[in-house]
Amino acid sequence: VLSADFVAEAREVGGLPAAGPPEIAIAGRSNVGKSTLLNCLAARRALARTSKTPGRTRGVILYDLVLQPSAGGGRMPLRFVDLPGYGYAKVGRDERHGWGELVEGFVKQSDRLKLFLVLVDARRGVEDEERQLIEWLASEGVAWRVVATKLDKLTTAERGAVRPKMAAALGTEGPPPLPVSAETGDGIERLWAVIMKALEEDAAQGG
Ligand SMILES: Nc1nc2c(ncn2[C@@H]2O[C@H](COP(=O)(O)OP(=O)(O)OP(=O)(O)O)[C@@H](O)[C@H]2O)c(=O)[nH]1
Ligand SMILES: [Mg+2]
Question: What ligand 1 atom has the least distance to the C-alpha of 57?
Fold first, then answer.
């Protein structure tokens, strides 16, 4: 990662800046570890604000990165989109409704979205919200991938069960979930490979 910079925060779809680099969206329940994973991927300690208080990230937050996948290789721009968390009981009904609108609006207006990461707490597993979100993404033709977070909080035995358990909860369709820990760095390399592949497919298509 050559550089990582905050670009903008938007509380509504109209406030999003013009399309930039190819985008990777990060979404999931409040407190699942979206901002922490983003910092881990960007190899920056405090690029995105993280918090023990759920419901911290309220708007769509954009970060631009410039990568150099291999020494001497070409530079590759990419934009991470930190989406607000859902499922936090203490936010009002209006705000909960606003989440769907914001995320739906973002996905529909973005023609640079390459991959949508759906984060799920490894201890909690895939629930109705995630299934609905994935079903909707699939219907919109958006490439998605489930990322199981906080792997370090599981025992070794539990860790081994994460992939089959989540795959079963997701049904047979779709790519297998990726277990990661932003704390230990476990699975991060594999996640990077998935992200790079999504970007390369884009480049190959001339986009
Ligand atoms: N042990 C462990 N803790 C983690 C990991 N990732 C995140 N956390 C912790 O989980 C809490 C929430 O992390 P955030 O990254 O702020 O979560 P978020 O999904 O961005 O939350 P909102 O923005 O409120 O929706 C913080 O206390 C993090 O330190 C992980 O891989 N392992
Ligand atoms: Mg956050």
Answer: 23
